[in-house]
Structure formats: structure tokens, C-alpha cells
Amino acid sequence: MSVNFTQKHKHEMITFENVTKLYGKAKALNGINLDIQPGEFISIVGMSGAGKSTLMKLIIGEEQLDHGKVLIDGIDMSTVKSKDLPYLRRKIGIVFQDIKLLPKRTAFENVAFAMEVSGHRKDKIDKDVPKILELVGLLHKKNNFPHEMSGGEKQRVAIARSLAHRPVLLLADEPTGNLDEVNAAEVLELLLKINELGTTVILATHASDLVNKINKRVITIEAGQITLEQATKGKYKL
Asked: Whole-angstrom Cα distance, residue 139 to residue 39?
């Protein structure tokens, strides 16, 4: 299977065409139409249960839609076989509220592990991991275990781990949900920095104060439907 993301394509990176996702009789998403361009920073906002996480799961193929189409870099996700999903996901970084670092591995080893499972050689891992940790401001913590780090530091390690494959798309689903205001602001600043380096970032959150600081495109979801779309300098409005 050929899955070749690029930030230079003329077409959209992600397209939702009249997408509906059902859980039983309940519509988690109901007729979603959405285009995401390469290099964008988009905040998907809404209350818990609005459909934000479902939208993210459709992008990575973790859930199957019931109606419509999801196109990722021109590829119809409904045609991607389960055995081919790992190839697609190698170009997508994923960060969740539940950090799930390996507790008995250091910051360095957590990032290195993500490269090891993809078959990278040790010399490349030893060269790249320090650079990635430096990008997230944690090179000085490379030998620390998760229990020796703050919540914000652990989330930054999780972001570093998601960058191990040099993704062109980063999905962040409520990444600041368990953090205090200071740590949440640091994580947001890091996501903006990653976006400035060329990675498309999709942030799903209900943290209005963070969204209002970003001044980028904002998509509001309520009860599985897009109720508001602000192209630039968007704010959290419900």
C-alpha cells in the first residue's frame, strides 16, 4: 500500500464528506463536512460527548463510519485494510489526555521505544532522540523516569514520542485535560511551535481559555454536528 503524506499536495490533507457515525441509534457524528489543509492548526471544540474524539478516531481508522467518506491525503479510509493502517499511522502523531508513558523507562527510552518498534536502527535512534527531546525542552530530563516528572513534563514526553516518526499530522485529543494552567500553557506553546515547523495540528479540547489564545481556525461541534466554523482568529463560542 502506498500512503505518502506531503505538505506540498494541492488537495486537502483531510476531507470529511457528509460523515455520520452511529453508536447504536445515537449519532456521535451527524452529517459532518470538513476540509483540513496541509500546515493548518485547527481547534475542534465542544463539550464532552459532542463528537470530538469520534472525529479523531475516524482520522486514524480506529472507528469505522456508517455513512459518508473520510479521505486522508486522497485515500478513502473505508478502503484501507486493517493490516495497512499501521503504515498510515506512521505519518500521524497522536497525543491523548491519558499519557500512558512506559513507567519503567526514562524519557529517552520512551521516545526511543517508539522508534524501535518501527524498525529504526540504534545509531539513528541515538542521534534523533536527543534532538526530539531538545525540541520539547526536556533534553535535561532524558534520564528521568515518569514518576520523577511533573504532569506537564510527562505530556511533553508523550508529544516527543508522537514526533518520533516525524509525522506530518499531529492529533492532540484533550492533551491538557489533566494539567494545571501553567503546564497547559506550556503544552499549547509546544503544539504551536510544532505547527510552525510545518506539521498540521488538530487539537480537540473544551478548554476555552487555551483556544482563545491560539487565534487560529476553530471548528465548534455540538451533538455531533458542526455548528460554527471560524476560519481565522477563532474563539471558543458555545
From this structure: 26
pLDDT score at 225: 95
- Residues 90 and 220: their CA atoms lie apart, in Å, by 28
CA neighbor of 125 nearest in space, from 137, 145, 109? 109
- Can you give the three-state secondary structure of the chain, one letter per residue? CCCCCCCCCCCCCEEEEEEEEEECCEEEEEEEEEEECCCCEEEEECCCCCCHHHHHHHHCCCCCCCEEEEEECCEEHHHCCHHHHHHHHCCEEEEECCCCCCCCCCHHHHHHHHHHCCCCCHHHHHHHHHHHHHHCCCHHHCCCCHHHCCHHHHHHHHHHHHCCCCCCEEEEECCCCCCCHHHHHHHHHHHHHHHHCCCEEEEEECCHHHHHHHCCEEEEEECCEEEEEECCCCCCCC
Q: Which residues contact 140 (CB under 8 A, 6 or more apart)?
A: none
Query: pLDDT tens digits, residue range 130-148?
Result: 999 999 999 999 999 999 9
Per-residue CA distances from 168 to 29, 150, 151, 165 (Å): 25, 28, 26, 9
Query: What is the Cα–Cα distance from 92 to 200, expressed in whole angstroms?
Result: 10
pLDDT at 7 over 80: no
Residues forming beta bridges with residue 126, ordered by sequence position: none
Please report the pLDDT score of residue 144 as a whole number: 97
**Per-residue pLDDT tens over the stretch 210-227:** 888 888 999 999 999 999
